[in-house]
């Protein structure tokens, strides 16, 4: 113990390790405190930790009622996100998992329908899964809303939204729904559909969210009983989560696969931060092509990692030590690397052919939150008409809408800007150290994710494909 | 397509769609044109004694046209009527979707009747929902406005008004409003004044400025919020005259420009520019110093309309704000990027 | 104990394979530092529950421990135990689910000083392996693993490396450093070993640091550092506790323990090491001054991630806005009030029109009226401030209410529930409370009479007076530091205070140090805390050296010489010299007695040889009026013997001997006998019991004289 407690500060690795042994509730609390203490930070570690935790949560979940499972996950998600609202990725993962559960449930409802025809009307069409409605796919809630702080007119929202996901499909299918709460999120929202053959005799007065809730729960009940016989919801969901974990692992390599399309011979590429994604991306290109990388050191909060990344290709970046596998540094890959201070960006931009940015979070409106300095780089690129490419795994893509961009930006330890020893300075001067920048969509030309390249304006579509509208607001 | 089998001999009932429409509008001040139109159509359906799908669709078609013709600016109205029509087509065809329309007559009539009953019975419900959606949008105001923000808005959009009011009610919010009001006494600007009054009653500092002062005051503004008569496929909006220039200015000043609109205002149009709108407005009428011609011109101009409801005078004129000026469209179900709008429409039309 | 595994075996398993599971990392939290630095607030609440940036102090400490991967936590609480207990039991640290600690234990001890606590701890034998000692007021985001590893590595090599102090580098001037005292560490940078420690008074500018010359010869490199923040984070081994209990006269962990252990390194051979860090944040909220500066640091995010907006407490919802403004949801701001930068406002607080708030920390559910100006103030939960008030850098505790148009000047402290009525001005020196003294267990605390002259008519509360001078020093370290002029006056005060006999001193460990030392020094005479650092240094050194030379049987002349030099260097008072002499002599005597020789011989041997040494300590030989020094000497002797076994006998013989030697004159002896101080406390009375005979003898003798005189007169 002495060894370990000494060597391993609480962090991602220790958390993952402990996850095996400790029960769920403490693990949740543990993760929360780690997030609060910033002992797990940055998108990837957060994502990994969250998925691992949720896998555990689902695993521990008793009973077969999927509605309960959804609630459980959602409630865990709320706690996590409010613990560290700025790590948007946590929320993303939770939403993904929620989506998974619903998918599993609905698939099995389809099975159900084929099996027992009379409930056919209740089966949402599979379109619902693959084409969730778009317009509600951007949350109306600032990512920083703490669960507690949500106005309660919105508290009733999830039920209402929960229709939309299933309602969204072509009109002919509309009435395959027994239930429609008022205010469903389709253009047809005005006209609800109480009168399908199955329920045409019921009075029209019965359309209310609760009736909807009632009905779905009926579905789920049915699902529950027969699932006990046929399929194991939990197992499927957990498989799904494992796939999600694989996605996290692979996303870098998948993105790297596109490198050659974007980086050409003898180009000068400018990038910043010691992002693994970007490094791998560049390396992939370096295998075939010779080009120059201008690396901005992103002083003060990331420059150590950056330096070591350039030198050794290993960012001894605190806690995510183990899982952060070392890669061959660019210089060994035959790439000419030039390191410049942040202040030099604009001057050098005129010679740069392409800017490649790493990111912290991508928001559904095409904007991104990245390490501070990103905006300066992006605007400089804009001024020089230099294309800006953002490399980001889909898991960083968040459905939340940035109402208040200031609140997305975290302010870090002032001590990294000015040493704390400098007593007079500390006393007399205010020091600020924002960790992130908000880069508006119009400064970005292209996003490269593990599923391909997209224009910023197209991101809403990706969001729609990956998140279920009913899960947008945790 | 719907009029595959024309049944001409169907007598037009004494029922006057236009009057109903007006009545409905007047009866409920904060009712949007599309919803009113839908209600009117429902009533039309009630008065008619159609029994087959084809007839129904035809009837709707006819009424819709009358309505559209009757109003100077049918854009937002048509949003409602089209929606309703599409809906009818969709639902009526559903049971026999394979058969196509040829077999529409022998569609199960009970089914048809059921739908009809539902429509007739739940006419009011539509209105409720329309209002509900507005309330929902308004409830976003809390996230929307930041403490100490200054909002620039214009026109008499009820949704915007509702949103601001809601924000004002949450006492922790401190924001100022700059309200663009045209000095004219058009219905629109009257509503504007009303909103201003209410906001001030809520102890929200409001400054009213003429269109000409927008650029001047933009320096103080944190965000621009406008309403819309219609949201077109491209994601652009059709809104009262002056919105376009606000958009341009906001863009040039780098201020976020939000549109607030219920999703039933989405209209299937694809205007390419200001003069591409399917309505005539005499915003630009070039004159030479000859009274006679001008007046006669006016006369002709008036004659174009079935009735003197409201001439498309300068006050009521609209303009088109292209999507690239719009940061986001706030509907009852979330914030859309302009590009998402088309997908919405595609979903109901194809 | 669920959280156990977290930083525990699993990581062991994962890495370093199967080395046997060593004992968990333990930590001792000294929740009560046995000081009155925070009076009057500490009258009603334990200091570690005082809110710092709206979070109780102890939370930060626990965060720090959790951060360091500690598993077992023992909290030593002094005053207000029940409050602390209640708080912890409700906090997330107690619950099995949420606490990162596998064990959380409160220890109530009667100890009046850290020394006692340590010894108590040793007797309990709770601590098996290396453990941390921190105060209940440490604020730090420092990851400890490097320090721990360094410590353990050293342990592997050398069992005698018993302790590692974690010190934060800070410039020569730093707001977060202690002002009244500044520690000087002499470090061998090559081995990170601390060679010498001295607490420098930085009041009078005469800095003296007496270094053992061997240090210079033994070590190629020496660093004498004064630029370190000593945040009281020590990594210790059980030997440390043993050491504590060996020398039961250690009270203060630094001045006492550290200083001495380093001093007689030759004796015990234990080494103490330093781990000096120059990144991350580490500070102790040791007094109001540091309270102020640490608060500022936290708001300015120097202690990141320990910031208000990371919402360490459950249910907090602070959000950061531009310019380090932290607001919780549900803050009600009037339309035209101005919140300036570096401000924290808690939930449910309402701020009126035209109010301007800057650089202040305001708790939850406070009510701030209209047109109030608040700058740099600390206002705790549920306080209310009336319209038109002006509050400067002051602390206004919970439920205190300030009526309209008051003026609270910088430095004022307004304690719980005080009510200041309309239009009053509270000056910077005022410390207003409603509590007379510390709340004992259970009993509701006694209310003092409201003092209208301070809180105005209808107000509630009165000026808080602390009996001991320690507070004079405290004000210097108060919220705002006073000018040097003031300090001088303190010195004056403390100087004259030296000879006064002070018993009510349990709060300040200087005093407890003096008094509760079982054996050597009894707390006759008190000293202002920093003066007493000398005092202590002197006492210790002098006593030690004299004692040694007594054993070696040196010439009293030499002893005298040593003594004076020591006295000069630490400018100790005559009183102290006497005390030193007495203590050492008595020690020697007792030792001799212990080694078999009978009392008379022992006394004769010890005192006899050193007549002039003794006489040199008393200068009122032929002053007709009062024999103050002699009385003092006797008092010391008596007090010292009071605690020894058959001290009375020793006292008798000693007294007789002294009279014989004419070191103490008859009058002196009589005066002492009459002196009230010699009668107070039963052990004092007891010990002087036997001496009665001597006194009788003396008195009648003198009577005879007088008789003779009479006769002479008569004839």
From TrEMBL, chain A:
Location in the cell: Cytoplasm, Cytosol
Pfam families: IF-2B
Matching SUPFAM superfamilies: NagB/RpiA/CoA transferase-like
One cellular-component annotation, GO: eukaryotic translation initiation factor 2B complex
Biased composition (Polar residues): 193-212
GO terms assigned for molecular function: guanyl-nucleotide exchange factor activity; translation initiation factor activity
Main location group: cytoplasm
Chain intervals for the UniProt region annotation (Disordered): 191-212
UniProt KW Cytoplasm keyword: yes
Subunit structure: Component of the translation initiation factor 2B (eIF2B) complex which is a heterodecamer of two sets of five different subunits: alpha, beta, gamma, delta and epsilon. Subunits alpha, beta and delta comprise a regulatory subcomplex and subunits epsilon and gamma comprise a catalytic subcomplex. Within the complex, the hexameric regulatory complex resides at the center, with the two heterodimeric catalytic subcomplexes bound on opposite sides.
Protein name per Swiss-Prot or TrEMBL: Translation initiation factor eIF2B subunit beta
TrEMBL record, chain B:
InterPro entries found in the cross-reference section: eIF2B_alpha/beta/delta, elF-2B_alpha_N, IF-2B-related, IF_2B-like_C, NagB/RpiA_transferase-like
Matches recorded under Pfam families: IF-2B
UniProt keyword terms in alphabetical order: Cytoplasm, Initiation factor, Protein biosynthesis
GO MF assignments: guanyl-nucleotide exchange factor activity; translation initiation factor activity
Subcellular location: Cytoplasm, Cytosol
Main location: cytoplasm
GO CC term, one of those recorded: eukaryotic translation initiation factor 2B complex
Keyword Cytoplasm found: yes
Domain of life: Eukaryota
Keyword Cytoplasm attributed: yes
Subunit structure: Component of the translation initiation factor 2B (eIF2B) complex which is a heterodecamer of two sets of five different subunits: alpha, beta, gamma, delta and epsilon. Subunits alpha, beta and delta comprise a regulatory subcomplex and subunits epsilon and gamma comprise a catalytic subcomplex. Within the complex, the hexameric regulatory complex resides at the center, with the two heterodimeric catalytic subcomplexes bound on opposite sides.
Assigned protein family: Belongs to the eIF-2B alpha/beta/delta subunits family.
Protein name: Translation initiation factor eIF2B subunit alpha
Source organism: Polyplosphaeria fusca
Automatic annotation (TrEMBL), chain C:
GO molecular function, one term: translation initiation factor binding
Major subcellular site: cytoplasm
Domain W2: 528-708
Lineage of producing organism: Eukaryota, Fungi, Dikarya, Ascomycota, Pezizomycotina
Biased composition (Acidic residues): 701-715
Family, similarity comment: Belongs to the eIF-2B gamma/epsilon subunits family.
Record protein name field: Mannose-1-phosphate guanyltransferase
Chain residue ranges for the region called Disordered: 1-23, 434-459, 696-715
Record key words, sorted: Cytoplasm, Initiation factor, Protein biosynthesis
Source species: Polyplosphaeria fusca
Subcellular location: Cytoplasm, Cytosol
One GO cellular component, as annotated: cytosol
Subunit structure: Component of the translation initiation factor 2B (eIF2B) complex which is a heterodecamer of two sets of five different subunits: alpha, beta, gamma, delta and epsilon. Subunits alpha, beta and delta comprise a regulatory subcomplex and subunits epsilon and gamma comprise a catalytic subcomplex. Within the complex, the hexameric regulatory complex resides at the center, with the two heterodimeric catalytic subcomplexes bound on opposite sides.
């Amino acid at each position: 113990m002495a060894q370990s407690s000494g060597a391993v500060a609480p962090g991602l690795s220790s958390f993952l390790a402990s996850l095996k042994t400790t029960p769920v509730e403490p693990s949740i609390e543990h993760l929360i405190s780690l997030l609060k203490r910033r002992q797990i930070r940055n998108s990837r570690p957060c994502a990994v930790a969250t998925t691992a935790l949720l896998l555990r949560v689902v695993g521990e979940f008793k009973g077969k009622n999927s509605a309960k499972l959804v609630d459980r996950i959602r409630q865990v998600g709320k706690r996590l996100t409010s613990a560290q609202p700025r790590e948007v990725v946590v929320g993303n993962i939770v939403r993904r998992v929620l989506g998974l559960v619903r998918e599993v449930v609905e698939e099995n409802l389809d099975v159900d329908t084929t099996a027992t025809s009379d409930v056919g009307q209740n089966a949402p069409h599979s379109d619902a899964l693959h084409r969730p409605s778009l317009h509600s796919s951007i949350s109306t809630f600032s990512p920083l809303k703490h669960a507690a702080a949500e106005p309660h007119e919105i508290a009733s929202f999830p039920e209402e939204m929960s229709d939309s996901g299933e309602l969204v499909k072509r009109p002919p299918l509309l009435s395959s729904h027994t239930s429609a709460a008022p205010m469903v999120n389709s253009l047809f929202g005005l006209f609800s559909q109480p009168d399908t053959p199955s329920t045409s005799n019921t009075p029209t007065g019965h359309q209310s969210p609760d009736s909807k809730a009632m009905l779905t729960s009926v579905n789920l009940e049915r699902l529950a009983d027969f699932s006990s016989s046929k399929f194991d919801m939990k197992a499927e969901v957990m498989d799904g989560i494992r796939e999600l974990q694989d996605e996290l692992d692979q996303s870098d390599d998948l993105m790297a696969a596109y490198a050659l399309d974007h980086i050409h011979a003898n180009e000068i590429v400018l990038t910043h931060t010691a992002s693994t994604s970007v490094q791998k991306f560049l390396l992939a290109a370096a295998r075939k092509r010779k080009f120059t990388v201008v690396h901005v050191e992103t002083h003060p909060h990331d420059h150590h990692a950056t330096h070591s990344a350039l030198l050794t290709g290993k960012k001894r970046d605190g806690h995510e030590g183990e899982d952060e596998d070392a890669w061959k540094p660019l210089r060994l890959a035959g790439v000419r690397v030039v390191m410049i201070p942040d202040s030099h960006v604009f001057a050098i931009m005129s010679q740069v052919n392409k800017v490649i940015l790493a990111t912290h979070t991508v928001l559904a409106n095409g904007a991104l939150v990245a390490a501070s300095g990103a905006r300066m780089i992006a605007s400089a690129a804009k001024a020089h008409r230099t294309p800006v490419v953002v490399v980001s795994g889909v898991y960083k893509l968040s459905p939340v809408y940035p109402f208040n961009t200031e609140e997305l930006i975290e302010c870090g330890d002032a001590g990294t800007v000015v040493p704390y020893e400098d007593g007079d300075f500390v006393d007399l001067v205010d020091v600020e150290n924002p960790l992130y920048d908000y880069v508006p969509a119009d400064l970005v030309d292209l996003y490269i994710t593990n599923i391909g390249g997209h224009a910023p304006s197209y991101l809403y579509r990706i969001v729609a494909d990956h998140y279920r509208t009913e899960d947008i607001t945790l | 397509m719907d009029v595959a089998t024309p049944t001409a001999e169907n007598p037009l009932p004494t029922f006057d769609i236009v009057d109903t429409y007006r009545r409905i509008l007047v009866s409920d001040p904060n009712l949007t044109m599309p919803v009113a139109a839908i209600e009117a159509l429902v009533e039309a359906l009630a008065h008619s004694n159609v029994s087959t799908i084809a007839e129904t669709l035809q009837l709707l078609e006819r009424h819709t046209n009358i309505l559209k013709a009757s109003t100077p600016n049918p854009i937002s109205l048509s949003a409602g009527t089209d929606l309703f029509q599409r809906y009818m087509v969709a639902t009526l065809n559903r049971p026999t979707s394979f058969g196509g329309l040829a077999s529409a007559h022998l569609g199960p009539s009970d089914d048809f009747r059921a739908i009809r009953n539902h429509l007739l019975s739940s006419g009011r419900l539509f209105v409720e929902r329309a209002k509900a959606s507005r309330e929902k949008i308004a409830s976003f105001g809390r996230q929307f406005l930041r403490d100490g923000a200054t909002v620039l808005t214009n026109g008499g959009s009820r949704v915007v008004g509702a949103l601001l009011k809601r924000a004002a009610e949450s006492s922790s919010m401190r924001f100022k409003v700059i309200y663009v009001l045209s000095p004219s006494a058009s219905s629109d600007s009257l509503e504007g004044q009303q909103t201003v009054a209410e906001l001030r009653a809520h102890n929200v500092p409001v400054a009213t400025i003429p269109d000409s002062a927008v650029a001047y005051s933009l320096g103080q503004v944190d965000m621009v919020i406008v309403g819309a008569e219609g949201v077109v496929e491209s994601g652009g909006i059709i809104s009262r005259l002056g919105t376009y220039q606000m958009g341009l200015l906001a863009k040039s000043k780098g201020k976020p420009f939000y549109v607030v609109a219920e999703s039933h205002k989405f209209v299937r149009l694809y205007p390419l520019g200001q003069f591409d709108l399917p309505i005539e407005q005499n915003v630009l009428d070039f004159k030479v110093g000859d009274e006679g011609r001008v007046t006669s011109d006016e006369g002709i101009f008036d004659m174009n309309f079935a009735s003197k409801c409201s001439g498309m005078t300068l006050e009521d004129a609209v303009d088109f704000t292209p999507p690239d000026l719009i940061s986001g469209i706030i509907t009852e179900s979330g914030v859309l990027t302009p590009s998402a709008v088309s997908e919405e429409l595609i979903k109901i039309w194809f | 104990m669920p959280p156990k595994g977290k930083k525990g075996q699993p990581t062991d398993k994962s890495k370093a394979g199967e080395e046997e599971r060593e004992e968990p990392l333990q930590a001792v939290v000294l929740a009560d530092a046995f000081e009155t630095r925070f009076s009057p607030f500490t009258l009603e609440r334990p200091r570690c529950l005082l809110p710092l940036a709206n979070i109780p102090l102890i939370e930060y400490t626990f965060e720090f421990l959790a951060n360091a991967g500690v598993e077992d936590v023992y909290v030593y609480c002094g005053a207000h135990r029940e409050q602390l207990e209640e708080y912890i039991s409700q906090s997330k640290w107690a619950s099995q689910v949420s606490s990162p600690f596998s064990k959380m234990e409160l220890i109530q001890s009667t100890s009046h000083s850290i020394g006692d606590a340590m010894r108590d701890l040793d007797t309990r034998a709770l601590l098996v392996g290396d453990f941390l000692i921190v105060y209940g007021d440490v604020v730090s985001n420092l990851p400890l693993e490097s320090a721990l590893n360094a410590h353990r590595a050293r342990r592997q090599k050398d069992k005698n490396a018993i302790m590692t102090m974690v010190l934060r580098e800070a410039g020569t001037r730093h707001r977060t450093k202690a002002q009244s005292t500044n520690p000087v560490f002499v470090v061998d940078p090559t081995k990170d070993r601390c060679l010498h420690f001295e607490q420098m008074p930085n009041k009078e500018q005469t800095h003296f640091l007496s270094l053992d010359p061997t240090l210079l010869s033994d070590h190629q490199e020496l660093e004498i550092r004064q630029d370190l923040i000593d945040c009281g984070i020590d990594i210790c081994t059980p030997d440390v506790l043993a050491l504590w209990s060996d020398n039961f006269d250690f009270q203060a962990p630094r001045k006492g323990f550290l200083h001495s252990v380093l001093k007689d390194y030759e004796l015990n051979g234990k080494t103490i090491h330093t781990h000096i860090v120059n990144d991350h944040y580490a500070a102790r909220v040791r007094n109001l001054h540091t309270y102020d500066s640490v608060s500022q640091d936290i708001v300015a995010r120097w202690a990141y991630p320990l910031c208000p907006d990371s919402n360490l407490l459950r249910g907090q919802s602070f959000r950061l806005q531009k310019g380090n403004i932290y607001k919780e949801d549900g803050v009600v701001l009037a339309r035209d009030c101005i919140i300036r930068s570096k401000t924290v406002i808690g939930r449910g607080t309402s701020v009126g029109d035209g109010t301007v708030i800057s650089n202040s920390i305001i708790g939850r559910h406070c009510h701030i009226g209209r047109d109030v100006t608040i700058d740099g103030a600390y206002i705790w939960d549920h306080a209310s401030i009336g319209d038109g008030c002006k509050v400067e850098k002051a602390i206004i505790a919970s439920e205190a209410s300030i009526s309209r148009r008051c003026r609270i000047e910088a430095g004022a402290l307004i304690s719980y529930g005080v009510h200041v009525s309309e239009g009053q001005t509270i000056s910077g020196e005022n410390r207003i409370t409603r509590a007379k003294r510390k709340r004992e267990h259970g009993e509701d605390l006694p209310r003092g009479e409201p003092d209208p002259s301070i809180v105005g008519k209808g107000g509630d509360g009165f000026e808080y007076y602390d009996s001991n001078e320690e507070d004079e020093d405290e004000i210097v370290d108060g919220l705002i530091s006073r000018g040097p002029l003031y300090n001088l006056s303190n010195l004056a005060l403390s100087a004259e205070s030296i000879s006064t006999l002070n018993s009510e001193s349990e709060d300040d460990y200087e005093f407890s140090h003096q008094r509760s030392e079982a054996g050597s020094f009894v707390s006759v005479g008190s000293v202002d805390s920093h003066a007493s650092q000398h005092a202590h240094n002197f006492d210790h050194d002098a006593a030690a050296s004299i004692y040694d030379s007594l054993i070696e049987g040196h010439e009293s002349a030499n002893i005298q010489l040593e003594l004076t030099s020591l006295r000069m260097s630490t400018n100790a008072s005559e009183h102290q010299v006497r005390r030193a002499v007495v203590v050492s002599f008595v020690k020697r005597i007792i030792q001799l007695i212990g080694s078999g020789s009978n009392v008379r011989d022992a006394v004769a041997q010890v005192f006899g040889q050193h007549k002039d040494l003794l006489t040199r300590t008393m200068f009122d030989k032929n002053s007709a009026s009062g024999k103050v020094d002699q009385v003092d000497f006797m008092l010391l002797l008596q007090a010292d013997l009071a605690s020894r076994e058959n001290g009375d006998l020793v006292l008798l013989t000693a007294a007789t001997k002294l009279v014989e030697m004419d070191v103490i004159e008859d009058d002196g002896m009589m005066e002492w006998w009459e002196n009230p101080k010699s009668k107070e406390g039963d052990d004092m009375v007891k010990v002087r019991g036997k001496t009665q005979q001597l006194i009788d003898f003396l008195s009648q003798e003198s009577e005879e004289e007088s008789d003779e005189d009479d006769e002479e007169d008569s004839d």
